Amino acid sequence: MVTVTNKAGFKKEYDFAELPVPGPMQRSLARVFAHRSRGWTSHGTARSNWIKLGYFADFLSALGSPPDDLDSLTAAIMQSWRDGLINTNSGKGTLRSVRNLLQGDPRLAAGPVAEELARRIPAPTPTKQSYEQGERDRVVQAAQRQFRSAWLRIGENTRLLNAWRAGDLPEGAREWRLGKVLDHLARTGDVPRTLHPGGHASVTNRGLLGGKGVDAWGRLFLSRGELTSLAVLLTDRFGWNLSVYDRIPAPTTAPSVGETVSVTYQVQVEKRRRGGGRWFSTENITDSGADSSGRLITQALEATAHGRALANSLVPGRDLLMVARSYNLEQEHLDLDRPAPVGPLSFGVSESMIQYWARGHGLSGSPFQRARRTTVTNEGRPLQHSQGTHESVYVLPDQRIQRASRDVFEAGALEAFEQAKAAVFGGQIADNPDQQHQETATADCEDETSSPWPASGGGCGADFLLCLACPNAHVHPGHHPRLAHLHEQILSLRSVLDDRTFHERWRDHQLRLEDLRYRVGPAAWKAALAHVNDTDRTIVQFLVKEDLAL
Questions:
Q1: CA neighbours within 13 Å on the CB side: how many for 256?
Q2: What is the distance between the alpha carbons of residues 346 and 42, in angstroms, rounded to a whole number?
Q3: What percent of the chain has pLDDT above 70?
Q4: Angle in degrees, CA 155, 159, 165, rounded to 5
Q5: CA-CA-CA-CA torsion for 454, 456, 460, 466, nearest 10 degrees?
Q6: C-alpha distances in Å from residue 186, one per residue of 205, 222, 304, 345
Q7: How confident is the model at residue 219 (pLDDT cuts 50, 70, 90)?
Q8: Partners of 347 in the beta sheet?
Q9: Of 79, 77, 82, 83, which Cα lies nearest the Cα of 62?
Q10: CA-CA distance, 68 to 65, in Å (whole number)?
């Protein structure tokens, strides 16, 4: 027998005599399970490992000659076990869990079985995808409709209750009688009921309340479905994991000197995997108006105010944000990893609540993983996880991001191509000058009327340095001395200009000249420097005079 205690202090026993393997194997598996369980803080983790270890026991029992104990395992057995599971995500998870357990036995620390256990298990292939925009809108709008209706209902009844408690309503009037019922509801979690012979109780003021069930107690409390809608909206807005909602404390307000318009909340978000199940981070979220992210926190606090107040009166110190009023009291609390109910109140969002909510809104499955993935990928940064997880699990496998990235990659490639084109000599190399061409400061122009940079009054509007980027440019050996000298002068600017200025003003011109030098030939280019004359120097000084003056 192995007893596992979760972080809430609840215990659960696992009977290894139930496994269909010999007694020595049962005891060895119990020992490695017990050793590993010291680091577990939830019964969910323990149960998952128990189930997977059961698969391993079933596999061993089906062998022709089942091993009597762990030291009787062979590499061939472990290879067969691996081959049957390696091709599915669930199989990979089972292999990984069982390996972690078996490696806790010192007899498997070395040898062929140890080598087989040490083989790499590929990461699971992500199957959940983020929502397309239309899908996300459908989910969020469904949650908004349900939660907003509840928030408005609770707000209206809260104002009536406050007026009754302040004595602002005429005694005996309908609103006064309703306020009295609401006061009873706020203090007890239920409306007054009349007990009938046989033990049946009915709502005493059904006509006044407009019905029973949520029509009655829902005046001050969220239903479980409405709480699920709130959780969907929080996940869509903040990308929180589903497990966060079971134990998230009610946010508190941060000190704000002189601030009267906005309020900043401090939200404690649990990150189980990063702190042994007990690690919280604080997120500051500001409500500065209707469109701010903090407005949802304000509405959540308002909608759950009576539930939190009742929970605290029944169990002092209990102030969890995600509280709902249950239709029926839970007969036995079975999910020991989640907070136990307090009176008629339940906390967090259970799997059954999610399934019921999804079916009620025509969804094929839980919206939480896909909504979280959508928020994380839209946000473009890690949320409650590492950068490596963000890239490998959320971004790279996501089909929506892959499709969106194609346009980005294409635009980037085109931009790079255009930049590359801009940084090379765009004209033609000639052996001799052409009398039909017009001479410029850096090249001969074939046709200024077809310039890529036309002037408003006709002709070419480009400066002389841009001539080398123009397809109309022709460079012959007579230009080489001047251009080689120009290249040297531009390089000399590196010592007087900061990197940013040089890059903006001269980088492309430098690269075009270096491309031209490559085409002419380094030897001919160097030789041309010996033929630089005063005219060349004057023209080059004119071209770079602004920055040479520095």
A1: 16
A2: 19
A3: 87
A4: 140
A5: -70
A6: 15, 12, 12, 12
A7: very high
A8: 323
A9: 77
A10: 9
Supply the pLDDT for residue 550.
38
Of 173, 182, 179, the closest CA to residue 216 belongs to 182
Could you give the CA distance from residue 184 to residue 81 in angstroms, rounded to a whole number?
62
b/e code 353-378 from CB counts within 10 Å (16+ = b): bbeebbeebebeebbbbbbbbbbbbe
Closest by Cα among 271, 316, 323, 321 to 298: 321
Q: How far apart are CA 399 and CA 405, in angstroms?
A: 10
Q: Please give the C-alpha separations between residue 13 and each of 17, 45, 63, 205, 440, in angstroms, as whole numbers.
A: 12, 13, 28, 47, 92
User: Cα–Cα distances in Å, from 389 out to 92, 138, 279, 305, 359?
Assistant: 18, 28, 18, 36, 31
Rg (CA), the chain: 37
- Whole-prediction pTM: 0.65
Q: Which residues of 25-74 form beta strands (DSSP E)? A: none
Q: Are 193 and 221 in contact (CB under 8 A)?
A: no
Q: What is the amino acid identity at position 155? A: G
